[in-house]
Amino acid sequence: MSNVKRRRIEADLKKVISKLIKQELPDKHRLDLLSVTGVELTPDYRKATVYVSHIKKDEELRKESLKLLRRKEKTIRAGVTRALPLKYIPELRFREDTTLKDAQKITEIMKELKAERNESDSPEQL
What we know:
The chain has 126 residues and is an alpha+beta fold. It contains 5 helices and 3 strands; from the N terminus they run ααββααβα. Strands 1-2-3 form a 3-stranded mixed β-sheet.
């Protein structure tokens, strides 16, 4: 039962944090292309890892956005306090979601392997 409760709270946190980033942060012009992709709570509900993804591929912009979120953690946490009636308001840790980047790497590797396989399968021409 607690796992179901934790998943529900994670979903609520994701919604609230997304809204706070989009609407209430003074630096939202730098965070417009940022989205919260997931939230993972620790079993004791005291810490939450917030995974974010930036649409832009510019590495410097992504790093700057992550630093900004980390600096605004207390502001975002205060917003969560106002929005959700939780016994414990978790400490927020922002991390870049690398799922898409990892999937692209895997796809590239698979294409390379397929190309190598096709080359080795074709008869050598003299």
